[in-house]
TrEMBL record, chain A:
GO MF, one annotated term: heme binding
Organism this protein belongs to: Enterovirga rhinocerotis
Cited InterPro entries: Cyt_c-like_dom, Cyt_c-like_dom_sf, Cyt_c_oxidase_monohaem-su/FixO
Top-rank taxon: Bacteria
Protein name listed in UniProt: Cytochrome c oxidase cbb3-type subunit 2
UniProt cross-references to Gene3D superfamilies, sorted A to Z: 6.10.250.2250, Cytochrome c-like domain (1.10.760.10)
TrEMBL record, chain B:
Organism per entry: Enterovirga rhinocerotis
Record-listed heme b 2; high-spin binding positions: H409
Signal peptide region: none
PROSITE patterns xrefs: COX1 (PS50855), COX1_CUB (PS00077)
Name under which the protein is recorded: cytochrome-c oxidase
């Protein structure tokens, strides 16, 4: 064996090929089957996609690096389930490009945050966390409430997401910017289209408390309020496991 | 330095800069409505400055032919200086965000100054800025010596070094503006990723060209590691960053993968960035600088072979241990755990090989802080690989995951192993490169050494404490069968450890500053005639021992 190596280490190209060969095996065996084995991701026929406003909110979550302190993955451990709710299923992040499971809980897990607090609580908390939770060490994000949301190119965003596999329809793509506005302006004419395209259960509210102006705060809060609510597969895990 | 380039090479460099300016202009115009345009402007500006600098030197005469018979070390020198600049910047930001967790209001209402945006500046700054530049600089140095061949030309190494730093600058400035794809340790967006692919391919070809010109029949161990580092990082980088941009005028792209597949790909990447960037590359460094500095040959050739192939094979399976108890199928988790535990064998073979090499030179370890840096690095390498295998066991991971323990583990590796071996290698090579007998001050190397050791220990102990306490508080039940502590109670319990951690980090940063001063003073005391470049020892019968440049 060492004799063989003695010869191998005299050939640069041989060494290169050997390194590539030896190093590829692990990844191929572990990753490729995840795309082909059907049971990897549960079925959730009623799962909906993110609305354009929620996509925008998710992008702000990414931009501000919230994932550095918050996980969105409840593990199958008793204490986690009791603290945060039913453990996360693979299907719940099926439309998450990229996933935001996180790796560190400087703050709590927020995989099931949707509906836990009021919009007003989130707005106050994001502007200054210590106004709401005295001991908090989370940074404040007051500029979100002051900054208008850039929503003109949301159609392009949905289109890119469709290209990587999220089932957005042509209609959703066409009305993306308008739907983003409509979702945070319940009394406007644009609001109706949102529930028509994304379902009656979609939150249509002035998330930041001001229906007149579409801000980054609207988008982020809309996103936080949908966390864990795109599908109810996790609350009836038995049914999906049997499939 | 530019004077060392031939007229032809200067023209080539100018052509590259002009191409870069055009690229920057296209980005500026195409991305005028997005942050991509800002980066375009930055690229354009840098290129224009470069063009002016280069044009001013076009008329200089060609350098002496003689240079081709010596090693080409200018890129290594510059790389080492840049590496130290990134070290200070990256460590500073790291310590700053450590203090942010103690005093959260230090963000002063500025988006760029909040924890989430600064954290990747820290991680990329130290890993890619400090570590990456040190790897590139030392790899140029090592490959020439161990092959007895001069780098084939004088433009490519500069392209690799500056191209790589352009990537780092785009990455860091991007995070501050909020440009990130959120994949940990792979945050830069699609255009930066594409650029890195170009740089990396050129780096690989340069390495291969130098190897193929070698005058030694065998390729030395250090080069296997540097090669594995270059190759595997390329594969990881390309696969993990596959994404579809919103448009060619937008900085934003959406990852090709989602959910569980994305998580697995990301941690296959993430863990192997640890393996092939932070381990293989630095083992390459260790295999050259430690034996040379200790004046002893590597203890065991066979152990080198076993550990090299063990690391190359096993590591690639280990990534899934980042996803224990998650929605990742259990069979993948189990494979990840199994291979992580087996990984201890080649890891300890490397660490053992390094320590056994020092056997017989302990007096030098005692007296020479530079060698002691390398010794401590090998010890920390052994410790943190043991800890890593331990934490990959599912039952342990259920406690440690999501807590500060992971952060402590990473820093045992990053500060104790990666930074220590780098400082050791830099302190060894600076006098060699600038033709001195020694560093400006051996005392200051000592000071740096003790600051680094103290900082690392304080940091790691603080995070062990906070991580384990956190993990236990989250899973403690009281007698009535309900969870005993709220999340906030666990948060409050962390405060003293966060303060200790920030102090440990500060000591480490101070050490790096001392190092910068010492290096600067060493360079400044360089005698004039040192302009002469390094040549290999003359061989028997006066035969030319170096494969000259072209």
């Amino acid at each position: 064996m060492f004799g063989l190596h003695y010869r191998l280490e005299r050939k640069a190209i041989g060494l290169v090929l050997a390194i590539i060969g030896v190093s590829s095996i692990g990844g191929l065996v572990e990753i490729a089957p995840l795309f082909t084995i059907h049971q990897t991701v549960e079925d959730a026929p009623n799962m909906r996609v993110y609305t354009p406003l929620e996509v925008a909110g998710r992008n702000i979550y990414i931009r501000e690096g919230c994932y550095a302190c918050h996980s969105q993955m409840i593990r199958t451990l008793r204490d986690e389930v009791e603290r945060y709710g039913p453990y996360s299923l693979a299907v719940e992040s099926k439309y998450d490009h990229p996933m935001l499971w996180g790796s560190k809980r400087t703050g709590p897990d927020i995989a099931r945050l949707g509906g836990k607090y009021s919009d007003a609580w989130h707005v106050a908390h994001l502007i200054n966390p210590r106004d709401v939770v005295k001991e908090s060490i989370m940074p404040g994000y007051p500029w979100l409430a002051r900054t208008s949301l850039a929503s003109e190119d949301l159609g392009l965003h949905l289109k890119a997401l469709r290209r990587v596999g999220v089932p957005y329809t042509d209609e959703m793509i066409e009305h993306a910017s308008n739907d983003a506005y409509g979702q945070s302006a319940p009394d406007s004419s644009a609001a109706e289209g949102v529930t028509k395209r994304y379902g009656e259960a979609t939150n249509v509210r002035a998330f930041d408390g001001n229906a007149g102006r579409l801000t980054e705060m609207d988008a982020l809060v809309a996103y936080l309020q949908i966390l864990g609510r795109l599908t109810d597969a996790a609350t009836k895990p038995v049914a999906s496991a049997e499939k | 330095m530019i004077g060392q380039l031939t007229k032809n090479e200067r023209q080539n460099a100018l052509a590259i800069l002009i191409a870069m300016a055009v690229g920057g202009l296209v980005m500026t115009i195409g991305g005028r409505n997005s942050l991509l345009g800002v980066h375009g402007g930055l690229v354009l500006m840098i290129a224009v400055v470069g063009i002016f600098a280069m044009t001013a030197t076009l008329k200089l005469p060609d350098p002496a032919e003689d240079r081709l018979n010596a090693y080409y070390d200018d890129p290594t020198k510059v790389g080492i200086i840049i590496s130290m600049v990134w070290a200070v910047a990256g460590l500073f930001v790291g310590d700053w965000i450590a203090w942010l967790l103690v005093f959260p209001d230090l963000t002063f209402d500025a988006a760029w100054a909040s924890f989430g945006r600064l954290r990747p500046v820290h991680t990329s700054g130290v890993i890619f800025g400090f570590g990456g530049n040190a790897l590139i600089a030392t790899s140029f140095y090592v490959v020439q010596r161990t092959c007895r061949a001069r780098l084939p030309d004088q433009v490519t190494p500069w392209f690799v070094l500056f191209g790589y730093n352009l990537f780092c600058v785009i990455a860091a400035t991007g995070y501050l503006m909020g440009v990130t794809q959120s994949k940990e340790y792979a945050e830069p967006e699609w255009y930066a990723d594409l650029w890195l692919v170009v740089v990396w391919v050129v780096y690989f070809l340069l390495y291969l060209r130098t190897l193929s010109r070698r005058k030694e029949p065998h390729i030395y161990v250090a080069n296997w590691y540097y090669m594995a580092f270059i190759l595997v990082v390329a594969v990881l980088h390309i696969v993990n960053n596959l994404a579809v941009p919103v448009s060619f005028g937008s900085e934003k792209a959406y990852s090709a993968f989602s959910g569980v597949q994305d998580a697995m790909t990301q941690w296959w990447y993430g863990h192997n960035a640890v393996a092939f960037f932070l381990t293989a590359g630095f083992l390459g460094m260790l295999y050259y600088y430690l034996p040379v500095r200790a004046g002893r040959p590597i203890y065991s050739y066979r152990m080198s072979i076993i550990s090299f192939w063990g690391i190359t094979f096993f590591y690639m399976w280990a990534g899934s241990h980042h996803l224990h108890y998650t929605a990742l199928p259990q069979w993948v988790q189990t494979l990840g755990m199994t291979f992580s535990v087996m990984l201890l064998v080649p890891s300890w073979a490397s660490a053992g090989n390094a320590l056994m090499t020092l056997n017989g030179a302990w007096d030098k370890v005692r007296d020479d802080a530079t060698l002691r840096f390398m010794f401590v690095a090998a010890v920390f390498y052994g410790l943190s690989t043991f800890e890593g295998s331990f934490m990959a066991i599912r039952a342990v991971n259920s406690l440690s995951h999501y807590t500060d323990w992971t952060v402590g583990h990473v820093h045992a590796g990053a500060l104790g192993w990666v930074a220590m071996i780098t400082f050791g290698a830099i302190y060894a090579s600076v006098p060699w490169l600038w033709k001195q007998d020694r560093m400006y001050s051996a005392k200051l190397v000592e000071v740096h050494f003790w600051l680094a050791v103290a900082g690392t220990l304080i940091y790691v102990f603080a995070m062990w404490n906070s991580g384990i306490i956190q993990g236990l508080m989250w899973r403690t039940y009281n007698d009535s069968g309900t969870l005993a502590y709220s999340f906030i109670e666990s948060l409050v319990a962390m405060r003293p450890y966060y303060i200790a951690r920030a102090i440990g980090g500060l000591l480490f940063l101070l050490g790096a500053l001392v190092g910068c001063y010492n290096i600067w003073m060493t360079i400044r005391m360089a005698p004039r005639e040192s302009a002469k470049a390094d040549r290999p020892e003359p061989g028997a019968a006066g035969a030319p021992v170096l494969q000259p440049g072209e």
